[in-house]
């Protein structure tokens, strides 16, 4: 029986290294499996790229997992922040979170997110400054 468990772990690791496994799980409504594969991917040291994050978002969408997918749009910005912290250093995801902070008036959290974005995008801070300007410009 131990060999079956080892084989399953190896298959999961192989799938996790390939965003196609994540996409496949998501397409078939297995959002939990897609998130598990993503976690295995991260734990094995594989750095997710933009394609991987799109695959995760689509997997959550196909599975109806609003809790892991559209937290920022749903106004659950603090929960979205906790989720994004675990995803790693992908500027696009943090940028979306900054926009959600602005839209929902979470300006203190927006400052934290902006600082993170400044460290991730040292050479491309213009968009971050624009989002900050929009957010703090609406402050009365």
Automatic annotation (TrEMBL):
InterPro entries: PPR_At4g14850-like_plant, TPR-like_helical_dom_sf. Transmembrane segments: none annotated. One of its GO terms (biological process) is RNA modification. GO terms for molecular function: RNA binding. PANTHER family: PENTATRICOPEPTIDE REPEAT-CONTAINING PROTEIN. This is Pentatricopeptide repeat-containing protein. It comes from Kingdonia uniflora. The lineage of its organism: Eukaryota, Viridiplantae, Streptophyta, Embryophyta, Tracheophyta.
């Amino acid at each position: 029986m131990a060999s079956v468990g080892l084989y399953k772990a190896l298959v999961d690791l192989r799938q996790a290294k390939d965003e196609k496994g994540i996409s496949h799980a998501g397409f078939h409504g297995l959002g939990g499996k897609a998130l598990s594969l993503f976690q295995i991917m991260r734990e094995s040291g594989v750095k997710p790229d933009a394609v991987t994050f799109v695959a995760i978002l689509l997997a959550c969408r196909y599975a109806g997992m609003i809790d892991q997918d559209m937290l920022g749009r749903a106004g659950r910005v603090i929960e979205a922040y906790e989720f994004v912290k675990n995803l790693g250093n992908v500027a696009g995801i943090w940028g979306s979170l900054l926009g959600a902070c602005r839209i929902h008036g979470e300006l203190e959290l927006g400052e934290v997110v902006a600082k993170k974005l400044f460290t991730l995008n040292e050479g491309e801070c213009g968009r971050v400054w624009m989002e900050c300007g929009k957010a703090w410009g609406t402050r009365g």
